[in-house]
Design brief:
- By secondary structure, this protein is mainly α.
- It has a domain of about 55 residues.
- Helices cover about 55% and strands about 0% of the residues.
- The chain has four helices and no strands.
- Helix 2 packs antiparallel against helix 4.
- The mean pLDDT is about 80.
């Protein structure tokens, strides 16, 4: 009985609903060239050294305690692309 319960919990447990979020623009919506360039620059921002410096600065000021988890950083990447 216990084996079936643990298997069921492991099967249905997810940490987040979408572990690989991707920004997809609306079909037919025009985007400015400037915004397209910003969206390209935003891809992978949280995995670069710049973001690590921002987090280190926030830690030194006492605003953050640690780097955000990987899944949250992926969500931040997708949201940054959606700002334009």
């Amino acid at each position: 009985m216990q084996d079936g319960v643990t298997d069921l919990q492991q099967t249905y447990y997810r940490q987040v609903k979408n572990p690989n979020p991707v920004f997809t623009p609306r079909k037919g919506a025009g985007t400015l060239k400037f915004c397209e360039k910003l969206m390209e620059k935003a891809v992978g921002f949280t995995s670069r050294f710049d973001f690590a410096i921002h987090v280190a600065h926030a830690r030194s000021r006492g605003l953050r305690r640690r780097m955000p988890p990987v899944l949250r950083r992926r969500a931040i990447d997708a949201l940054l692309q959606g700002l334009c």
